[in-house]
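Format notes (please read before filing issues)

Several people have asked whether sequences and structure tokens are stored in separate files. They are not. Every record keeps both together, in the order shown below: the sequence lines, then the token lines. Line labels are part of the format and must not be stripped during preprocessing.
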Amino acid sequence: MMNDELTLHTTVAYGDVDRDEVLLLPGLFKLLQEAAIKHADQFDAGTRAMATRGESWVLNRMAAAIHRYPRYEEPVRVVTWSSGIRTFKGYRDFRVYCGDELLASASSLWLYVNLKTKSLIRVPEDLARAFPSRPGEVFMAGLEKLKLVPPGAGSPAACRASVRYSDVDGNGHVNNTTYFDILQTALARGGLPRRPEMVQIQFLKEIPPDAEGVDVRLETRGPITAFSLAGPDALFAQGQVS
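Then the structure lines:
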């Protein structure tokens, strides 16, 4: 029987922890991505839609509160559900637990696209009708209206990252979890907390496989650090951490 939520049970893998054996920032978002895909695939709306429909979801916004980063081999469970589908937008929430301890909460906004034309399209009625949702249970209800201002043009680049073969996913662009890998590297090199307790990000433009490099800029604004990921002629993402 298909449920309105999916629970992913796993343990923290060695390949997803840092030198202190603590879960990496991209490792956390890999767990969220995996749970989202597995739930969407139950309704032929995940990776299967790429093959059967030539369509896919792309992540547009994410906001997360991280209460604790688990360590290597700790058991975790990720609970996820759809909080609604409207036109070409899909809303999804997540909770991450270790036993009864809440490790992280997150809300996300996804856009439905035609992979050939790279254009936004309305979610097919049969798919939207079949997909169960729980709109009342949302970590950040105002995610879509959240204003994220990137660092000023004069902010120096904290680091530059190259695009690797392993960064590119089935949609033909750099996977969203790689953005968090690049961000965490920039935070560490900038002498800022490398395990933020709050992450808010807006994905503006895909990073192509042949991108020559991605520059990360950081700007401290009191307890908040604004960030951006950009190329020579494009702003790929902007957000803030604390």
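For reference, the curators noted about this record: The mean pLDDT is 93. The chain has four helices and eleven strands.
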